[in-house]
Specification:
Strand order of the largest sheet: 2-3-1-4-5
CATH class: Alpha Beta
Distance between the termini: 32 Å
Structural class: alpha/beta
Bound molecules: thymidine-5'-phosphate
CATH superfamily: P-loop containing nucleotide triphosphate hydrolases
CATH topology: Rossmann fold
Length: 219
C-alpha cells in the first residue's frame, strides 16, 4: 500500500529558529520508516539555488524579487516537491509561498493581487479540476521581532532580508498572521519566545494531533 505524501512548510521571520526543529522532525519521520525530503525556498534545485543567490544578494525591485521567488518555486515544485509527494514521501520545506506574501507582500508592500495571480499559475495542478498545491500543514514559528533582532545581532554577514530594520519584520510577522487567518486549518502557530525544548514539544504535538507522528518515547 502506498502511503500518502505529506507536504509540510515552515515559516517565521529571520531568527525564529526553524532549523533545529526541521532536522528533529526529519529524524522523527525517518524513525517511523518514512522517506523524507529536506528542502528549502528559495532553493531546492540547481536552478532555484542560483536564483536564491541572486535574490538574497543583488539589488532589484519588488516585482523582480517576487517573480524570482515564484520562478524558483516553479522549478522546485516540478523537480523535487511533486515527484516526492507522488512517491508518498514526506517533504519538509523550509519556507514556501506564505513567505512571499509575508516578505514581498506585507514586508515590501508589493501588490497582493499580483502575488495571488502568481500563486495560481505556479501552484496549479496538472490534473484538471484539482486544487492548487498547498502544504498539508504550515508550522509558523511566531517570534516577536524584537527578540529575533537580539538573536540575529552579531551573527554572520546579513543578506538583503536579514539587514532590514525591525519595522520590516513587524510587517512580515503581521503578514504571516493575515495568511493564517485566511486558511487557519492549514497552520500550526508555535509561539517561539520560549526555551527550545518547549518549542519542540509544541511542534511535535501539531504532528501527533494529526496522527502523522506517534507519541514521543522519552528515555
Ligand atoms: P532563509 O534564510 O530562512 O533560508 O530564507 C531566505 C530569505 O528569503 C529569508 O530572509 C526570507 C526570504 N524569502 C522571501 O523574501 N520570500 C520568499 O518567498 C521566500 C521563500 C524567502
Amino acid at each position: 500500500m502506498q502511503t500518502a505524501g505529506l507536504f509540510i512548510s515552515f515559516e517565521g521571520i529571520d531568527g525564529a529558529g526553524k532549523s533545529t526543529h526541521i532536522t528533529g522532525l526529519a529524524e522523527a519521520f525517518r524513525a517511523q520508516g518514512r522517506a523524507v525530503v529536506l528542502t528549502r525556498e528559495p532553493g531546492g534545485t540547481a536552478l532555484a539555488e542560483k536564483l536564491r543567490d541572486l535574490v538574497l544578494n543583488d539589488a532589484m525591485d519588488p516585482l523582480c524579487e517576487a517573480l524570482l521567488m515564484f520562478a524558483a518555486r516553479r522549478d522546485h515544485l516540478q523537480q523535487v516537491i511533486e515527484p516526492a509527494l507522488a512517491r508518498g514521501e514526506v517533504v519538509l520545506c523550509d519556507r514556501f509561498t506564505d513567505a512571499t506574501f509575508a516578505y514581498q507582500g506585507a514586508g515590501r508592500g508589493f501588490d497582493l493581487a499580483v502575488l495571488r495571480q502568481l500563486e495560481q499559475w505556479v501552484q496549479a495542478s496538472t490534473e484538471p479540476g484539482a486544487r492548487l498545491r498547498q502544504p498539508d500543514l504550515t508550522v509558523w514559528f511566531d517570534l516577536p521581532p524584537a527578540v529575533a533582532a537580539q538573536r540575529l545581532a552579531g551573527a554572520r554577514l546579513p543578506d538583503r532580508f536579514e539587514s532590514q530594520p525591525q519595522a520590516f519584520f513587524e510587517r512580515v510577522a503581521a503578514g504571516y498572521g493575515a495568511r493564517m487567518q485566511q486558511d487557519p486549518g492549514r497552520f500550526a502557530r508555535v509561539p517561539s519566545d520560549r526555551p527550545m525544548e518547549q518549542v519542540w514539544l509544541a511542534v511535535r504535538q501539531a504532528f501527533e494531533q494529526r496522527g502523522w507522528l506517534g507519541a514521543e518515547v522519552t528515555k
